Amino acid sequence: MPRRPTEVRRTDPPLTWRVVEVLRTESDVVIAARPARKVYHLQVFGPLPYAAERNGKFELMAVDYAGRP
Fold first, then answer.
1. H or E stretch including 37?
2. What is the pLDDT of residue 4?
3. What is the mean predicted confidence (pLDDT) over 40-58?
4. How far apart are CA 17 and CA 2, in angstroms?
5. Could you give the CA distance from residue 33 to residue 8 in angstroms, rounded to a whole number?
6. Phi and psi at residue 15, in whole multiples of 5°?
7. What does the alpha-carbon distance between residue 18 and residue 42 come to, in Å, rounded to a whole number?
8. Using an 8 Å Cβ cutoff, are 4 and 38 in contact?
9. CA–CA gap between residue 21 and residue 35 (Å, rounded)
10. Mean pLDDT across the chain, nearest whole number?
């Protein structure tokens, strides 16, 4: 069974979201002219992107770029 993401972390500004549900995944795609191993469409809970002082649930796209930690 493939690994399911449980949290997403952003470095600048430092934010962390808990994954509530994996809505869909795409494999071996190109995002902004860069190869991506996987693209996750997630429903997450945590600080809102443009109002970090408030928590909420929203959809987020996380990209696992090939060759990037």
1. strand 34-48
2. 79
3. 94
4. 20
5. 23
6. -135, 150
7. 10
8. no
9. 24
10. 88
**Residue at 69: amino acid letter:** P
What the block records as the tokens of 12 is 């600048």
Asked if 17 contacts 57 with a C-beta cutoff of 8 angstroms, the reply is no
Which tokens go with 31? 């995002």
Tokens for 57? 């649930």
Contact 37, 68 (CB under 8 A): no
Q: How far apart are CA 58 and CA 23, in angstroms?
A: 12
> Confidence band (pLDDT; 50, 70, 90) for 34?
confident
Give yes or no for residue 9 having a pLDDT over 60: yes
Structure tokens at 23: 């809505």
Identity of the amino acid at 44: V
Show Cβ contacts of residue 67 under 8 Å, excluding neighbours closer than 6 positions. none
